[in-house]
């Protein structure tokens, strides 16, 4: 009876197809996730290396500002990625409807992210007496990481591309 039941084999095939699917969209999704991870660790790496060099060569308070700015840039990037993931899930769930409704909380969280980053920068600058330019340079580590990850994706050999 079990041999005649097609459900287990179909379920096994569905699981195999999901976990090892070789469709262009699944490969592109995995490629995008890999690039997101690369940008995240490069942001922290660039920021903390710059902070270490600045602390050794110039001034400690500037190094703290660069490190804090890069940590805020990393946090901003993580929140942005989570917000976009939520937006994609909402839009995919409503793909059959004529007019998709984006929850108001999505807009609130996007605005709140920027307000929270600005509040953190103000607090660090005002209460910890960290130079504002150091914080801004640390925030630029996200841009540097994005450029580096983009150059890597362009220069990657064609064999490893989907």
Task: Describe the protein.
The protein has one domain. The protein is built from 6 helices and no strands. It is an all-alpha fold and 162 residues long. It starts with 6 loop residues before the first helix and ends in a 7-residue tail after the last helix.
Short account of what is shown:
The chain has 162 residues and is an all-alpha fold. The protein has helices at residues 7-20, 24-57, 60-93, 104-127, 132-139, 141-155.
What's the topology here?
Layout: H1 7-20, H2 24-57, H3 60-93, H4 104-127, H5 132-139, H6 141-155
Helix pairs in contact: 2-3, 2-6, 3-4, 3-5
How many individual domains?
1
Radius of gyration: 22 Å
* Strand-pairing-aware structural class: mainly alpha
Coarse morphology: flat
Instruction: Kindly state the percentage of residues in helix.
Output: over 70%
Percent of residues in beta strands = under 5%
- How far the N terminus sits from the C terminus, by CA atoms, comes to 42 Å
The profile of the biggest β sheet is: none
State mean pLDDT (0 to 100 scale).
78
Number of strands: 0
Query: What is the count of DSSP helices, taking H or I runs of 4+ residues?
Result: 6
Weakly predicted, low-confidence segments = 1-22
Q: Helices and strands, in N-to-C order? A: HHHHHH
């Amino acid at each position: 009876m079990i041999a005649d039941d097609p459900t287990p084999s179909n379920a096994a095939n569905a699981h195999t197809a999901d976990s090892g699917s070789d469709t262009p969209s699944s490969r592109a999704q995995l490629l995008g996730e890999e690039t997101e991870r690369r940008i995240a660790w490069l942001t922290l790496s660039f920021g903390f290396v710059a902070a270490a060099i600045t602390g050794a060569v110039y001034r400690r308070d500037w190094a703290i500002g660069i490190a804090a700015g890069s940590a805020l840039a990393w946090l901003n990037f993580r929140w942005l990625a989570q917000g976009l993931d939520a937006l994609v899930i909402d839009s995919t769930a409503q793909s059959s409807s004529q007019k998709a409704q984006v929850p108001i909380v999505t807009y609130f969280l996007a605005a709140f992210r920027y307000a929270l980053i600005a509040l953190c920068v103000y607090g660090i600058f005002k209460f910890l007496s960290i130079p504002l330019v150091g914080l801004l340079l640390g925030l630029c580590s996200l841009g540097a990481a994005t450029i580096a990850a983009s150059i890597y994706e362009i220069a990657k050999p064609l064999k490893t591309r989907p």
